[in-house]
């Protein structure tokens, strides 16, 4: 990659692991950033030919249009079950799932829990924007208490609708979870931290020690009925208190030789 173009310094070039297809995501949506970061890591690690992604139903359903790698589609909520099969048949490949909160934490809760409990050697990328983004902004398991959605127009009432599900903390307790972290894409420093977490997760697959799980707290301007700038501000002020960024479970360093 050249570092200058017509006398100007090149600070970014689109990686070859992203296709040229125009993205369908709403303006300001965090999904496009997460796509880009994952594909950057894959190209920079030189594992393009050895990586397989699995995407289910939801906003992530068309990930194969944008990710220029081998992709597998899965039924709603069943991405980790499909990824388990792929990894067991092709254990030398790097395998990851790309899922939203309605998929992973609702219809796919069973698959999520049991995949991690078995310690399947895959990476699960979990994009949490607190609503069902693709189908109209309905309440999801991750919807905040008091948060208005199309199916909770007066706000989520925990007495009748239950409390928000912090599934990332839940699965961190499972013995098969090797690396569990929560990141975001609302700012440039946050994107850099996410990129580091993704790279670490792919590196950990070489160790065959269990499941890596990355929650990405993201905005949904359309579902939240806000501008992109407003949604990022709202995310920090409202989502982070319930879903604080940071590592939740990290691998223990190897014991020193005596």
What does this structure look like?
- This protein has 258 residues and is of the alpha/beta class.
- The protein has one domain: Thiamin diphosphate (ThDP)-binding fold, Pyr/PP domains (Rossmann fold, 3-Layer(aba) Sandwich).
- 36% of the residues lie in helices and 19% in strands.
- It contains 10 helices and 11 strands.
- The chain has helices spanning 31-45, 63-66, 79-89, 101-107, 109-118, 158-161, 167-172, 188-205, 221-224, 228-242; strands at residues 4-5, 8-9, 51-55, 70-73, 94-100, 123-128, 131-132, 138-139, 177-184, 211-217, 246-249.
- The strands form 3 sheets. A 7-stranded mixed sheet has the order 4-3-5-6-10-9-11, with helices on both faces. Strands 1-2 form a two-stranded antiparallel sheet.
- The longest helix has 18 residues, at 188-205.
- The termini are far apart.
């Amino acid at each position: 990659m050249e570092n200058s173009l017509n006398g100007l310094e090149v600070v970014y070039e689109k990686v070859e692991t992203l296709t040229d297809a125009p993205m369908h995501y709403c303006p300001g949506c965090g999904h496009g950033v997460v796509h880009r970061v994952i594909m950057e890591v894959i190209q920079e690690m030189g594992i393009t030919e050895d990586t397989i992604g699995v995407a289910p139903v939801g906003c992530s359903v068309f990930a194969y249009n944008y990710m220029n790698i081998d992709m597998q589609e899965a039924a709603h909520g069943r991405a980790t079950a499909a990824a388990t099969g792929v990894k067991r048949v092709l254990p030398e490949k790097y395998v990851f799932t790309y899922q939203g909160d309605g998929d992973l934490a609702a219809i796919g809760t069973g698959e999520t829990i049991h995949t991690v409990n078995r310690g399947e050697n895959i990476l699960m990328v979990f994009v949490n924007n607190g609503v069902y983004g693709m189908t109209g902004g309905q309440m999801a398991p991750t919807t905040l208490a008091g948060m208005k959605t199309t199916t909770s127009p007066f706000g989520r009432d925990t007495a009748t609708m239950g409390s928000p599900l912090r599934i990332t903390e839940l699965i961190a307790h499972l013995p098969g979870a090797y690396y569990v972290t929560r990141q975001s894409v609302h700012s440039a420093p946050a994107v850099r931290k996410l990129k580091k977490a993704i790279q670490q997760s792919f590196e950990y697959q070489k160790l065959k020690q269990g499941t890596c799980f990355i929650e990405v707290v993201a905005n949904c301007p359309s579902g939240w009925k806000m501008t992109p700038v407003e949604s990022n501000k709202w995310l920090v002020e409202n989502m982070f208190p319930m879903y604080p960024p940071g590592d939740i479970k990290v691998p223990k360093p190897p014991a020193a030789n005596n």
